[in-house]
Amino acid sequence: MLTQRDLRRAVRHGERELRAAGGDMLSQLRPRNILRDASDLVLKFVRDDALQGYVAPRVLPALAVVLVFFVVSAVCSIDVMFKAGRYMPGIFALLLGIACWAGGTLGQSYVFAIWLEGRAAQRGREERGIHVEMPNGFLAYLKYSRALVPWLVVLVCVVLPLAVMAVHAPQVALPMLAAPALAFFLFKRFVA
């Protein structure tokens, strides 16, 4: 039976864990860590034989998913550019649209690449008979996969523009919101 002292100790341990996880996640926002994490992921795609072996036969469907990200980001950037053009000079609206398109495409592709890398690592461990217990939950995913920054970019460059677009054109915004999720689901279901 748990005593009051054991319960307080467990609560303090949980608070320490949460603070440590928060500190780890916030450290992902440092520019040096962003560049390090991105370069590590690129190097994994270049040097890791297990990842290359997993991605190579799936490259065409993966490119189709990235094409969906490209189209959704293009729609978001066009909407942002036209809306921003009402409040600022045209060249700045154009630059904002380009930044939105680049951020949306890169952010979604980065999240997808992290998923591909994790899936390849999981398959490699299964083939060798190694069982690793990964913590569940979205916060654990953000902490261990180093995916906080790309998810923030996706929120700013895709989700926020689609939410603003949904007010006036829900018939465009809802399919654009569903398209990346559907593309990922189809890839995961039939290819991965």
Mean pLDDT: 87
- Rg from C-alpha positions? 20 Å
- Percent of sequence in beta strands: under 5%
Helix content range of the residues, please?
A: over 70%
**Global shape:** globular
Provide the low-confidence segments as ranges.
none
SSE order in H/E notation? HHHHHHHH
Biggest sheet overview:
none
| N-C termini distance | 46 Å
How many strand units?
Answer: 0
What is the subunit organization of this protein?
single chain
Number of helices: 8
Strands, helices and their partners?
Elements lengths: L3 H24 L3 H17 L1 H7 L3 H27 L4 H39 L9 H8 L2 H21 L1 H22 L1
Overview of this protein structure:
With 192 residues, this protein is mostly helical. The protein has one domain. Helix content is 86%, strand content 0%. The chain has 8 helices and no strands. It is globular. 22% of the residues are buried.
Short descriptors:
0% strand, mainly alpha, 86% helix, 8 helices, 192 residues
Structure summarized in a few sentences:
The chain is mainly α and 192 residues long. Helix content is 86%, strand content 0%. The longest helix is centred in the middle third of the chain and has 39 residues.
